[in-house]
Amino acid sequence: MPKKKRSGRFVYWTPRILSIAFILFLALFSLDVFDSCQGVFDCALGLFMHNIPSLVLLVILLISWRYEIVGGIAFILAGLLFIVLSVFRVVMSSPVEWYMLVWTLQIAGPAFLIGILFLIGWRRRKKRKQGLGNS
Length: 135
Prior knowledge:
Blueprint: H1 3-28, H2 40-50, H3 52-64, H4 68-93, H5 98-133
Helix pairs in contact: 1-3, 1-5, 3-4, 4-5
């Protein structure tokens, strides 16, 4: 297989696979709802509420599968939104410690990486289409 074809497949599949892993990772945080639920309805509602970010990212991933620009912009904005909300919450409740920033970047970092990879894939596809149109 030519090197260019392999790198194209890598750029195509990596953000999609990382997105799935990232969404599943975020969904794991919702499992703490079972520690405090009082009944089936309470558990279902808590599970749904905790998984709203994962569900939103899943919808974004489904759209991004075809339109990579959407994934690039949305995942980067999701990372930025998470940082802003985390910093705002910490500043309002307690003094800011260095480890809080590191923890925030551990969640936002993969979102940035996924967004950048989607943008790289979008740009490569755009260049390829322009190259075919000029032939």
